[in-house]
Amino acid sequence: MGELEPEVAALLRKYALQNALEYDGQGQIGSVMGRVMGENADLRSRAKELTGFIAAQVNEANALAAEKGLEHIRELLESESPDALEKKVKERREGLPPLPNAENGKVVLRFAPNPNGPLSLGHARGVVINTELANMHDGEVILRFDDTDAVVKRPDPEAYAMIEDDFTWLAGRAPDRILKASDRMDVYLEYAAKTLSQSHAYVCECSAEAFKEFRTTKTDCPCRNRTAEDNLRLWEQMNDGTILPGGAVVRIRTDMEHKNPALRDWPALRIQHADHPMVGERYKVWPLLDFQSAIEDHLQGVTHIVRGKDLMDSTRKQTLLYEKFGWTYPETLYWGRVKVHEFGGFSTSQMKSDIAEGKFSGWDDPRLPTIRAMRRRGYNPGAMRKFWVDLGLTQKDISVPLSTLNSLNAKAVDADAPRLSFVREPQTIHLDISGIEMDCVTLPVHPEHPDKGVREWALTDDFIKVKIALEDFCEDGERRLKDFADIEINQESTTNAWKGEVIRIERVGNTPIIHWVPENMSKPATLLIEEDGELVLAEGFLENNEYPEGTIVQLERMGFAILEGHDQNGARMMVRLHG
pTM to 2 decimals? Predict the structure, then answer.
């Protein structure tokens, strides 16, 4: 390496020392490089040249930290570059950034799922981002069902309505337009014929393996130079069934020497002799997604597309097609992958297979990452929207825990969630309360919102039956019934029944506090809980209430749950959300 200008060398040293201080003497070359280039645009053209110098400064700073400690690093910065010790707080943007080149009132976006099952948490990102951006610009969102594959990702007739319902619930509004690609097949086939007649495409009868070799060697396949008339004749044979599946595809004519192999004469339509759930056997040739989506985006006036960065080649393919027709391609934004730790391995096809095999009870099984399952568990659509908006549109791949969403959800539902007591695996105590002068135990509906009122448990007799969880007492002794009194618990030797007596109203010392419900103020209930990946039915007694199905409550000591209906024995059903 040569020598650097003194001012550049000092700058690199400052960033290296700063990084070592921030990361406890474990400064990283990439981090320092990013900061140098991010804050000094004039040095970006010299990135390759500066890499070695930055590495040397980082290694020296880390060595100084190890030898003399972080305080020494701080002292160096104070004397050499005090500005590096100032905490720069980056202003955080609330919400999403505006769309580029967007004209309010004329923005059109689309969310285009494959209807082979209901929406999952991953799909939620597309719903939220597209609707939020449309709302920002007084625009439209199209819900388009991309259902032109009846073999690999076969549409589920029930999924269309489920997806529309999930979309409306999550977005807080219905889509502005709803389209089924399968309803628009004649349009796609018409444009396919147009591409062939104008020699923008050709019918290729090469096998996939053979064409792969042509693509790799940048060689024209024998089919490429057919006349438009010959291509249209073969096109008719594809559509009338003369040519069987696998016998031909329609390829968009691009450049077989294109630097990107994926763009070399890419396939646009293929033959599928399958019974489509929505249109039967009417069609024998179906468009691939890149072709169908490109045509539909243009016809529907889509102005902006938001998609995963893994689909950049789709943008490139479709742009080439747009150029042939003289169309302007929509503005395109990309996001990276988001992996939610707890739901890393699910796919719609796999979930459908697992449900069919009985591994899950249905699309709303609480263990699944479907919107229907999460709705059943009481997730709030506003919290889910905030979750995705906060993650934004970065192209970085992100891995986040479900606890991030759970925290947002807890904040969203807490204020409206009434408190209830639920005792799991209840044991009965015959409690003597003859020594007290109380008519009832009074509890708040919500401890932070007194305006919501109180719950009252009547104490009408000298002896009452109390339900307490088995885990709350394993031996004789004193316990504190929450919000009531200290009691003495004993087990009767002759009957093995639990007996109890109130010994004082005030709590004394560190008497263990336990949850409870009077038997006459509660009813049998079942709580559905996920434990170690399995669904467990927790039997117990739930405090009496008149809350309707769908109400989210907070069970004392057990967290949030959503109330369902009653089972065949009349017991109230609940599903736990999270802690």
Answer: 0.78
